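Researcher: Re-running this chain for the archive, since the previous output was lost when a drive failed. Same request as before.
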Amino acid sequence: MHGVSALTTTTALTALLVLVASWLLIGALGLVQSNRIGWVARTLFPLGALVALGMAGMGAMSLTTGFAAQTSVLAFGLPDMPFHVRLDALSGFFLLLLGSAGAGISIFAAGYFRQGEGTAPGLLCLQYHVFLASMALVVLADDAYLFMVAWETMALSSYFLVTTQHRIPEIQRAGFLYLLMAHVGALALLLCFGVLHGGSWLMTFDSMRAATLSPAWAAAAFLLALFGFGAKAGLVPLHVWLPEAHPAAPSPVSAMMSGLMLKVAVYGMLRISFDLLHAGPWWWGMLTLAVGLATALFGAVFAAVQTDMKRLLAYSSIENIGLIFAALGLALLCYAFDMRLLAALALTAALLHALNHALFKSLLFLATGSVLHATHERSLGKLGGLIRRMPWVATLALVGTLSLAGLPPLNGFVSEWLLLQAFLSTPSIPHAFINMIVPLGAAVVALTAALAGYVMVKFYGVIFLGQPREPSLMQAHDAGWLERVGLAWLALGCILIGVFPQAALDAIAGVTQTLLGTVIQRGPAPWWIAPVAQAQASYSGLWLLLGMAGVIAVMFVLVRRMYHGRVRRVSPWNCGYPELTPRMQDTAEGFGQPIRHMFGPFFRIEREVPSPDDQLPRYRIQIDDHLWHGLYLPLARIVGWLADALSVLQRGRLAIYLLYSFLTLIVLLVFVL
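Model: Regenerated C-alpha cells:
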C-alpha cells in the first residue's frame, strides 16, 4: 500500500515538473512567430490553459488521503547547491489554486489580447508563461536557493507584463515602483533564509526545519518573513505599489497578479511560519492579526472612494489579503495556546478565502478588461447601462460581484462565515488580555464585509445599471466566445464552492492535518458544513439556494396570477425637472461621499471649490494616501540626498575604484582575523 502511494506521489511530482517545463516551452514557442496574434493567442494560450488544468489536477491529487509528501533533487543549480523540490499538501493546495484560476485567465487571454497593444504578442506570451511557471516553482521549491531564483523570476516577468504599454510614462512609473517594492521584499526574504539556516549554512528546507533557533532569532526570521511576504501581498503600509501596478497592467495580468501572485505570498508566509518555524509565541499571531485587520479595513475604505474601476478592484484586493492574513494570525494565536481545533478553523478560513479570492477577483478583473475593450474607458464616471450592450459580461460579473460582497450562496460568504465563526470562538482562549482584544476583530471583519458589499453595489451599479453616461457607450459590444468561456469557468467555481462548500473543506483538511495535526469537523453532506459542532453552527449552500429559488418562483407565480394585466407603466417622478438625462444618475463620487465623510482621517483630500460669483466654476477633488505623502515621498527624498552625497565617490578613474576594492578587502580581513 505504501509502495503504491509513493509511486503515485513520485509520478505526480514528475508530472508537475513536466507541466512547469511545458509552460516554459509554450512561452518560447511564442517567439517563433512573435507577431502572429492568431498563433500566439488562439493556439498557445489555450495550450497554456490545458497545462493549468493539469496543474490543478495534480494539486488536487496531492490533497487526497494517503498521499505522502515526496521530494526530489534536480540536476540544476550550482555544483554544491542543486535545486530541491517538494510536493506536499500545502504546495498541492496552492497548485490547485494556481491551476484552476490560471486556466480561466488563460482562456480569457486567448480572446483578449489584440495586435499592436504594446509588447509584441510572442514576447508577451513568453513573459506570461514564465510568470506562471515561476509561481509554480516557488510553490514546489524545497530550498532557499530555488525559492529565491523562482521568486525573482516571478517578480521580473510580472514587471515586464505590468509595463506592456511601456511607452506611457505613468505605466513606466508604476512598473518602477512595483519592481522597487518587490526587491525590497526579496531582500527581507533573503535575510530571513539567512537566519533560518541556524548556522548550518545548508539552504534546504529540511535543514531549516531541524535547526534550533533562539527565541530572538526565531522572532527575527518571522518578522523578516512578514515584511518580505507582506510587501508582495500588499499589506499596509507596504501596499503602495498595488493600486498603481494593477491599473497599469493588461486585465489578464491584473487578474494573475491579484488572483495568483498575492496568494504565492500567502503560501510563503504559511510555509515559513507553520512549517519551517513550527509557529511560535502568541504575539506572532497578535501582530499578524492586527496588521491583517488594519489592512482589510484600509483597503475597504479606500475602495469605496475610487472612481477608476481597476483601482477600485486593486484596493479591494488589499482588503481581501488583509482578511486572509487576519485569519492566518488568528490561527497562529490559537496554535500558540495549543487550541488546535480553533487554529484549524481559522487556517481553513484563510485557505478557503485565498481560493475564493483567486476565483472571484480574477473574474472581476477580466470583466473590467472586457468593459475596457468595449468602451475604452476605465473611469466609472463615464460608464453605465452596459447590461443592455454586454449581457454576458454583466451576468457573469454579477456572480463575481455577489461573491466578493460575501452574499450566500456563493463562495465568498462561506470563507467569511468561517472566519467569523473562528472569531466568535476566541473567548475560550486562556488569556485575559487576548479575550478582551481579539473579539474586536469580529467587529472589524463585519465592518469590512459591510463596506465590501457597499463597494460592490457601487462597482456593479455604476458600470452596468442605469443609462449610458456617454453617447459612445451605445457602440459597446459583448465579449467574444473565448472571453466568455474564461469568465464562465471562474463564475462556475464561485458557484460550486458556495453550493458545495464541504468539498472544498475536504481538500483543505489535508493541509491543516499536515501543519496543525488536526482537522475541523466534517459536515454531513458535500453541501452542508458544520465546522465545530452541528448544534452550534452549520450552513447548507444547496438548501439555501433551493430556498431562494423557491421563494422567487412562488413570487413570480403570485405576481403573474394576481397582478397580470394590472401593471401600468408611467414615467418616473423627475423632481420637477423638465427632462431626465443620464447625467442626473448617481455617480461614483456620489456613492463614495458618505465614506469620505465618515472615514475622513483615512484620506488626504484636496478640494477645489468654486466661489458663488465664479464665471467658470470648476469642482475638483483628489483623494490620496497619507502613507504615500507622509512616509514614501520623504523616504525617497532622503535616498536621493544620500545618493547625491555618495556620488562624489564616482570619480571615473579606474585607479580610484581599485583603491576602494583594496581597502574593502583589508577591512574584511581585519574582521575575519
